[in-house]
Amino acid sequence: MADKLSPEEQSKDKFFGELSRLSEEMIEEHGKDFAMGALVMAAQWIAKNQLGPQEEIKH
Q1: Strand ranges for 1-59 from DSSP E
Q2: How far apart are CA 22 and CA 15, in angstroms?
């Protein structure tokens, strides 16, 4: 096994670190249910190709 990560592995590792930090912040401020729900919604947006600014909901 290689001792050094490839540039792609380093990039992925950085993003996992950012996701971990963000998840911890969401849990601290709003709890686990919120954090899990937000991450699941993000995954759904990615799957449906709905990334980017969302249209404002009008009441």
Answers
A1: none
A2: 10
37: which 2 tokens? 């729900």
The tokens describing 26, both together, are: 């969401």
Q: Are 45 and 51 in contact (CB under 8 A)?
A: yes
**Residue 50, token pair as written in the block:** 């709905």
The structural domains of the chain, with segments of one domain joined by +, span: 24-48
HSE at residue 53, side-chain half, CA atoms within 13 A, is: 2
pLDDT tens, residue by residue, 12-59: 999 999 999 999 999 999 999 999 999 999 999 999 998 776 665 565
What is the reported pTM?
0.72
pLDDT of residue 51: 78
